[in-house]
């Protein structure tokens, strides 16, 4: 679904409650949101429930918004993030936080990216990801770093959109991404070395 089709679907749904338009939105974004949720909590059934909850919120609130294709994507991921926060609160759980500044790392981001090709190695057999070690290392990252990597490399969002979702400026997002890549490199070297 390109941005023009997304804008048309949003407009049709808001204007006359066209369920077919919402179904198009749902079919396009559901796998992305499910993957985003699954990579954060790593529980298939809970990820399905949370994804359903996210789309129920979208369905109930979309008519009351003034969104275009770009702002819709940001809004959708913010809803997803908030539902995940509610999930952790309701289960009295907190996402694991691991400090990343306890190790040496190279300033050469390209060496890190070329060595592990993060863009092409995501995950679990269930989601057709190819590197379970990378997914395990990803699950051990601090939450902001994990979200940054997922939003950038799995969901292919730009730094501006990620910044709006995480309430950070673009520079902070780039730093988070760099530290996450370094942290992943360190964890993979430890696991494989």
List the SSEs and their pairings.
Layout: H1 3-16, H2 19-41, H3 44-61, H4 69-90, H5 109-116, H6 132-139, H7 143-154, H8 159-166, H9 170-192
Helix pairs in contact: 1-2, 2-3, 2-7, 3-4, 4-8, 5-9, 6-9, 7-9, 8-9
* Structural class by helix and strand composition: mainly alpha
Distance between the termini: 42 Å
Q: Radius of gyration over alpha carbons? A: 18 Å
CATH T-level fold name of the largest domain: Rna Polymerase Sigma Factor, Chain: A
Low-confidence stretches: 96-126
User: Helical proportion?
Assistant: over 70%
Percent of residues in beta strands? Answer: under 5%
- Summed up, the helix count is 9
What does this 3D model show about the protein?
With 193 residues, the protein is mainly alpha-helical. It folds into two domains: 3-90, RNA polymerase sigma factor, region 2, helix turn helix motif (Rna Polymerase Sigma Factor, Chain: A), CATH 1.10.1740.10; 109-192, Arc Repressor Mutant, subunit A. It contains nine helices and no strands. Helix 1 crosses helix 2 (19-41), helix 2 (19-41) runs antiparallel to helix 3 and helix 4 (69-90) crosses helix 8 (159-166).
């Amino acid at each position: 679904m390109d941005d023009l089709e997304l804008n048309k679907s949003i407009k049709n749904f808001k204007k006359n409650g066209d369920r077919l338009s919402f179904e198009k939105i749902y079919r396009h974004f559901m796998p992305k949101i499910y993957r985003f949720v699954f990579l954060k909590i790593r529980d298939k059934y809970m990820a399905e429930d949370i994804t359903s909850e996210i789309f129920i919120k979208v369905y109930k609130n979309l008519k009351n918004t003034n969104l275009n294709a770009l702002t819709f994507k940001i809004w959708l991921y913010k809803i997803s993030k908030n539902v995940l926060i509610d999930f952790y609160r309701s289960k009295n759980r907190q996402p694991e936080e691991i400090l990343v500044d306890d190790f040496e790392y190279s300033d050469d981001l390209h060496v890190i990216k070329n060595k592990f090709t993060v863009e092409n190695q995501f995950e679990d057999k269930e989601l057709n990801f190819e590197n379970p070690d990378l997914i395990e290392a990803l699950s051990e990252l601090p939450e902001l770093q994990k979200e940054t990597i997922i939003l950038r490399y799995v969901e292919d969002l730009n730094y501006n959109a990620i910044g709006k979702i995480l309430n950070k400026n673009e520079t902070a997002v780039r730093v988070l991404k760099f530290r996450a890549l370094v942290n992943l490199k360190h964890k993979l070297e430890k696991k494989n070395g």
